[in-house]
Amino acid sequence: CDLARGRTVLFGGYTSGGTYSSETWAYGPTTPARWTPFGTGCAGGAGAATLAPVGNSLPWLGTAFPTAITGVPGSGAAFGCLGFSRTTAQSNALPYDLGPLGAPGCFVRSSPDAVFLVFASGGTATWTIVFPNNSAFLGLLLYAQAFVVDPAANALGLLTSNAAELRLGGR
After folding, report:
1. Is the previous residue joined to 73 through a cis bond, with omega within 30 degrees of 0?
2. Which of 5, 7, 54, 97 is most buried (CB neighbours < 10 A)?
């Protein structure tokens, strides 16, 4: 088992003719799904805002991909954002410092090209992203980040989570 690549590996064995084979076969997705976090979130009253996959989930085509946004005050709200860039957003260079806007230590790390409103329960909001089962999206890189509404945290009333690079994989 090759856990790093998400494949099953078979080496050797006997052929139907009774001879030994020294071939190596690898079975698994040709384009594995990937979640690579980067940056850190800023802290509010409920702790640092974080974005992470639920369990061992990964962004596979044709499946639901649940993520958890933590650091949300009580049953508050958060915004999950998907984007196509981690270098620019609306002509601004990333990461973009929100300190001058009233959120010191908070940074926009990915372009918010699609925004989803989610609500929390017990300080965690579950944001489930469903990727279409379309091979045209295979290997596509997307960037995700969450924004947590926390009026008591800073003058802007907003926290940013860590961000992540998502590679859409196929099975």
Report:
1. no
2. 7
In the three-class reduction of DSSP (H, G, I as helix; E, B as strand; rest coil), residue 153 is classed as coil
Q: How far apart are CA 113 and CA 61, in angstroms?
A: 19
Alpha-carbon torsion 40, 65, 81, 151, what sign? negative
Dig out the tokens for 163 from the structure.
Answer: 């961000």
Strand order in the sheet with 50-53: 34-38, 158-167, 141-149, 77-83, 114-121, 124-130, 64-70, 50-53
Whole-prediction pTM: 0.84
Ramachandran sector of residue 46 (left: φ over 0; alpha: ψ -120 to 50; beta: rest): alpha
Instruction: Quote the tokens at residue 101.
Output: 């806007």
- Residue 84 sits at φ, ψ, to 5 deg, of -105, 0
Which pLDDT tens digit goes with each residue over 1-39? 666 666 677 777 777 777 887 888 776 657 899 999 999
Q: What is the residue-wise DSSP string for 70-102?
A: E---TT-EEEEEEES-SSEETTEESSEE-GGGT
Nearest one of 86, 92, 104 to 159, comparing CA atoms: 104
**In this structure, are residues 143 and 166 in contact, taking their beta carbons and an 8 Å threshold?**
yes
